[in-house]
Specification:
This protein has helices at 2-9, 12-15, 42-68, 82-90, 97-107, 111-125, 129-154, 177-195, 206-225, 229-255, 258-289, 300-333, 357-360. By secondary structure, it is mostly helical. It is elongated. The chain starts with a helix and ends in a 17-residue tail after the last helix.
Length: 377
């Protein structure tokens, strides 16, 4: 059954125009073509990224954080309470009012004491500012280098300037070494993100980010297997052009450089909207939808590719709405701009300091209120 399904899936009638097929992509006369088996090299590349990331965070990101003045808050620890700890670990981190009442009876604590215990316990589990800074620094470095490398690989290619060239000679398009490494490194990076998800900061949109990573891996792999490589390199370059700006805005947020982070965020928003809502739909999608039909009769691969492109464009519109909402909120209230897409921690709190402690004046939480890195809702 598996063999029959594989044979049906790889049927050349699905993925190629009439009269062309897999035989046309066999290496010959010194011409090399993309093959599905090439994707196995992604696994060692992903593992190499995990090692490089650990070295980078220790030798580069940590000293950089110190230079930029990244400061941690002093977090209050909770007193040992087996009943509350058991409820926190096995039931929920955010108990309802009825659960709080029940816990008060079991522990003999007041309602305020139970609420304070859970608030402090959640704060203990929140990822440190340094950890978030190091993650953002790593992603910023990769996206920036990937954008530069992609631009260098495509700067002399005719399809960067004339999108019709993406389809000239399709699917018999020779694979260039620069295209090979651009694809493998991009794909390896996203696979490494999936591997590191257990140790990374867990955010409120964790599920959405996992779907995004898996979809990205699928799209890159699919375009490689059916030789949509020219279109794929353009799409990757387009996405890398704004991602490093978002990560740099986060870096400045964590360092407390509010004005700088806001300026970079607005630059990111402008580049994102220009590339994802103008270049992508009116040039990239137009070229994948219109130009192939001037050369070939419609085939399944053509429809499937454009379906995926439209799904991607819907995601672009969704993210753009969130970005614009953040920008409008900032302009209207002078709040600190923060990434609403992927930087809201799962355990994020209201940001109020521990009750009772402030009243007594015994403990100050390390920083004034304007240094609080709480995500705005």
């Amino acid at each position: 059954m598996v063999s029959s399904l594989s044979e049906w899936f790889w049927n050349e009638r699905l993925w190629f125009p009439e009269g062309l097929g897999w035989a046309d992509l066999e290496d010959k006369d010194g011409r090399v073509y993309a093959k599905a088996s090439d994707l196995w090299v992604v696994l060692p590349i992903a593992l190499a990224f995990l090692v490089i990331r650990q070295i980078f965070e220790r030798l580069v990101a940590t000293p950089l954080a110190a230079v930029m003045g990244v400061k941690e808050k002093v977090r209050l620890t909770v007193s040992h309470n087996p009943t509350l700890e058991s409820f926190y670990c096995t039931t929920t981190k955010n108990p309802s009012q009825s659960s709080i009442d029940s816990l008060c009876k079991q522990t003999g604590c007041s309602e305020r004491q139970v609420q304070r215990w859970f608030r402090r316990r959640r704060n203990q589990d929140r990822p440190s500012l340094l950890k978030k800074f190091k993650e953002a620094s790593w992603r910023f470095t990769f996206y920036l280098l990937a954008f530069i490398a992609g631009l260098a690989a495509l700067i002399d290619k005719p399809w960067l300037y004339d999108f019709k060239e993406m389809w000239q000679g399709f699917p018999i398009l020779t694979l260039l070494p620069s295209q090979y490494w651009y694809y493998m490194i991009e794909l390896g990076f996203y696979v490494s993100l999936v591997f590191s998800v257990a140790s990374d900061v867990k955010r409120k949109d964790f599920k959405e980010q996992m779907v995004h990573h898996m979809a990205t891996i699928f799209l890159i792999s699919f375009s490689w297997c059916v030789n949509y490589i020219r279109a794929g390199t353009l799409i990757m370059l387009l996405h890398d052009s704004s991602d490093y700006l978002l990560e740099s805005a986060k870096i400045f947020i964590y360092a407390g450089w509010r004005n700088t982070s806001n300026y970079v965020f607005f630059l990111f928003a402008a580049v994102f909207i220009f590339t994802r809502l103008y270049i992508f739909p009116f040039y990239i999608i137009y070229s994948t939808y219109i130009y192939p039909m001037t050369m070939y009769s419609p085939f399944f691969g053509y429809y499937f590719l454009n379906f995926l492109m439209m799904v991607l464009q819907c995601l672009h519109i969704f993210w753009a709405i969130l970005i614009l909402r953040m920008a409008v909120r900032f302009l209207s209230s002078d709040e600190k701009v923060e990434d609403e897409r992927s930087d809201k921690e799962e355990t994020d709190e209201s940001g109020e300091e521990e009750e009772g402690v402030e009243k007594k004046g015994a403990v100050q939480n390390g920083h004034a209120a304007h240094h609080n890195h709480r995500k705005t809702e």
